[in-house]
Amino acid sequence: MEATIEDLKALGHPVRWRILRLCLDRAFTNKELSVELDLAPATTLRHVRALLKTNFLVAEPVCTGENGALQRPYLATTRTRGLIIPPDDSGLAQQVDLAVLGAHRTELIAAGKDSGRGAKRGVLRLRPESVESLHRRIQDLIAEYRDEPDGEPLSYLWSLAARPPLDPHPGEIGADPIDQ
């Protein structure tokens, strides 16, 4: 399914991706989310409402919490799985990419110094058909693995980004002196 403009706006903040990851395994209340994310409850609620509006989160039935207070837990849907982020001129697609990266970085830091399970970075020059082939092969590889309820909770990130073009004439008048 292709993401709408409203979807892109809802997914364009790293906190919202963290909320979705937290609420994937169990339902969290706004209060629990605000404590976990170290945010004010009102700020957390603003993010929760944006995710509810676009059906990335669903509200569970109201329940009674500690001290008898009524509370509503929220659970992530699987709407982000397979969601196609189309290229756009508005910059929203890039904002979503940066939000995913920001959330992943924050989770990696929060999990502690021994949390890394491997990261690779490199550069390639590929024609469009090779880029599509690479994407398909990565998707197929990931699809081979299914959630194992007793397995270690992990997060993965696959990102392919265009590199900025190089200045073909470095050192000429008008070139950025920082790059020299």
Descriptive overview:
There is one protein chain. The protein has 180 residues and is mainly alpha-helical. Helix content is 41%, strand content 7%. It has six helices and five strands, in the order H-H-E-H-H-E-E-E-E-H-H. The chain has a three-stranded antiparallel sheet. A two-stranded antiparallel sheet has the order 3-4. Strand 3 and strand 4 (70-71) form a beta hairpin. Helix 2 crosses helix 4 (41-53), helix 2 crosses helix 5 (92-110) and helix 3 (30-37) crosses helix 4. The longest helix has 19 residues, at 92-110. The N and C termini lie far apart (45 Å).
Helical amount among residues, as a percent range? Answer: 40-55%
Strand order, sheet with most strands: 1-5-2
- What Rg do the Cα atoms give? 20 Å
| Strand composition percent | 5-15%
List keywords for this structure.
mainly alpha, three-stranded antiparallel β-sheet, globular
In summary, what is this structure?
The protein is mainly α. 41% of the residues lie in helices and 7% in strands.
Secondary-structure blueprint of this entry?
Layout: H1 5-10, H2 14-25, E1 28-29, H3 30-37, H4 41-53, E2 57-59, E3 63-64, E4 70-71, E5 73-76, H5 92-110, H6 128-143
Antiparallel strand pairs: 1-5, 2-5, 3-4
Helix pairs in contact: 2-4, 2-5, 3-4
